[in-house]
Amino acid sequence: MPTESAPLCPVTGEPAVRRVQWVTTRLLIDLWRYAAKVDARSSFVGLQRFGLWESPSGLYFFDPPREGDHLFYSGLYARLKAARLFTHETVREEFLIAARRIPAGARVLDVGCGPGNFRQCVPHAEYTGLDPDCAGDSPVAGIRAETLADHLLGHATSYDAVCCFEVIEHVRDPKTLFAEIVAAARPGGLICVSVPRAQSPMTRIPNFLINAPPHHLTCWSEAALRALANSAGVEVESVESAPWGSNSGIYWIERLSPIKCRDVHFRGALSWHAASAIASLLGIALSRLFGVPKASAAGGIGLMLIARTPGRSAALKPAGEGFTTENSYFSWRAAGFSYMRLGWRGAERPRAASFSGRAAPAVAGSDPMTNPFEFIQQVRAEAAKVVWPTRRETLVTTGLVLLLVAFASLFFVVVDEVLRTAVALALGFGRGG
After folding, report:
1. What is this structure's pTM?
2. Which end of the chain is flanked by fewer CB atoms within 10 Å, N or C?
C-alpha cells in the first residue's frame, strides 16, 4: 500500500507534520448551501475532498488550495450585508492597531481593501486602496480596481505603509502575495498584516464555515507569521493578538456550543449541525446585547504582524506627535467607545504576562510586598476594580441559557422518539415474519 505523501507548507516549503482531517467537498457544499445560503459548487469543480494539514510552524492549511470565485464571494457578501454582519462602516480592531502607527502625511496602501473601511481610520494619511471586485461599489475615494501585481508596475517602493487586513488567508500562495506587499513599501516602510489565528475560539466551533474552503485556506500561528516575514527579508517589530471588537459573536458562539472541536473541525453528524445552529442563534443575540466581557477582551481570534522593510526610515512623525486628531474617526474611536467597551486603560493595565506566556519584567523602582497586611490591602483594592454584571445582564444570560437547555432537551426528545419508533417497527416486523 503506497505511503501518503504530505503536501508542502505554502510558507516554508517544508512537508506537513500531520494531517488533521479529510473534508469532502459534498459536506462543504451542503454546509454552504443550507447554513449560509451560498452556492459554492463552482469553486469545487473537479474536487472530491480537501486535506486539512498542519505545518512545522503551526500553520493550518487546506490542500489543494482552491480559492473562492466571483460567484461565491458575491453571494457570500450579499448574505453578510443582509444579516447586518458587514457594512461599509464596519471597523476592525486591527484597523486601529495599524492607524496608531501611521504618521501624518504618510502614503498608505490598503491591499484587498473591500469597500475601503480602513480609510476612515487614517484621515491624516494619503490613502490608496486596491480591490478588483469592490472598487466600483464603494463611495470611498482612492480605491482602484487593480490587483497588487498590476499596481506594482508603476508604484513599487512608493508607500510609507502597506496594510493587508484578513486577505492572505484567502489566497492559494500567501508567500507570493506577501512578497508583493513588501515590494510596494519604501525602504524602512511599515508592513501591517492581519490573519486568523489557529488554536483560537474560532477553530473550536463545529462546522464553522468561515474557516472552510473556498473562503479561508490557511489559519496562522505566530511562528508561521514570523516565517512569512523572514521569507521576504523584513524586520519584525511585533506579532500582536488582535482584540475581539466586532467579532464578539464568535466569542459567544464558542462559549455556548456544547461541542468543542479539537482535531476534527468539520463533520456531517446531526449533533454537530444542531450544536452549531443553536450556538449561532444564541451567540449572535448575546453579542448584540453585551459584546465581549472585559476579562476576555485581550484574547481575540486574530494575529497581526507589524514589520518594516530594510533601510532607513524617513523623518515622518508617528500619529499623534505631528498633527491633531480631534476631528478624526480614529481619535474618538480609539479613545472612546471601542476601548472603553474592551476594558482598555492604557498605562493603568498591569503587565502581568506577555502573550508568549512568560512573565513580564518587573517595573524599575516598584516596592515589593513587605507584609501580609499590605498584601490583603492590595487584594481588596484589586477586588474593588471588578465590574460585576448588572441584574439585567444576569437575567438575560440566564434566560438564554435556559432556552438553550430547552432546545437541547427538545432535540433529544425527538431523537429518542424516532429511535423508539424505529425499534418498535423493527421488532414488529420480526414478529410478523
Report:
1. 0.73
2. N
